Amino acid sequence: MSDRQPVNLTEDEIAAVRSWVLLEDPHVLVLNKPSGLSSQGGRIKAHTLDDLLWAFMRSNGKRPELVHRLDRDTSGVILAAKTKPAAGFLGKALQAKRFRKTYLALLSAAPEPAAGTVETPLLRQEVGRESYMRAVTADTPGAQAALSRYRTLAKSEDGALVELDPATGRMHQLRVHMASIGRPMAGDARYGGALTFAGKAAPRLMLHAAKLVFPHPEGGYRTVEAPVPEDFEALKVAAGLG
């Protein structure tokens, strides 16, 4: 799959990435990515998930390739292809919007209405070495169409648990869309989210890729779900959200 040189991984790194496997067959590899790990190259000089895929290198020197990305602080389901034909098939399926991604997020208050759609266009901006997305009007030069669906699953005086479905795949889309309706995600300091939730620290973005439904190279669809991380679950319980 890859002509790049293998990355030297420690035994602990190999054990860790192998422990994240949710589904593996001859064609695909699905992992539960932890928060704080970049999907691919960034400014931080540390191994990315892309690097860690060398733990699955085959005898021919090839290894899986990521089909899509998650933000560094987003946890959850991420898909890799194990063969070149699978990569081609899944890449085309992704472009054709045949993937269904479901996320969970913690918000300081429930959206109003409790369920709905956000269709605000987004504009990518570079500020120093950082990339941001900004909600803009449709006539803004460079604006990209974006559509997100949301549904409140539980709410209390301390916050809300929402389910999110991005119909488009813009960078930071869900984060910016929820912030645009006055409901930034807990821990998302970049887009106005508080670093506390239900009286407890929320030191990182509380966004989790909970489920992925995707067409399989052998036919039909596969559904893979990832349990929420312990810190997400603890804040959810602290807010009385089940």
TrEMBL record:
Pfam families: PseudoU_synth_2 (PF00849). Residues 27-180 form the Pseudouridine synthase RsuA/RluA-like domain. InterPro entries: PsdUridine_synth_cat_dom_sf, PsdUridine_synth_RluA-like_CS, PsdUridine_synth_RsuA/RluA, RluA_PseudoU_synthase. It comes from the Bacteria. SUPFAM superfamilies: Pseudouridine synthase. Transmembrane segments: none annotated. PANTHER family: MITOCHONDRIAL RNA PSEUDOURIDINE SYNTHASE, RNA PSEUDOURIDYLATE SYNTHASE DOMAIN-CONTAINING PROTEIN 1. Belongs to the pseudouridine synthase RluA family. This is RluA family pseudouridine synthase. It comes from Brevundimonas kwangchunensis.
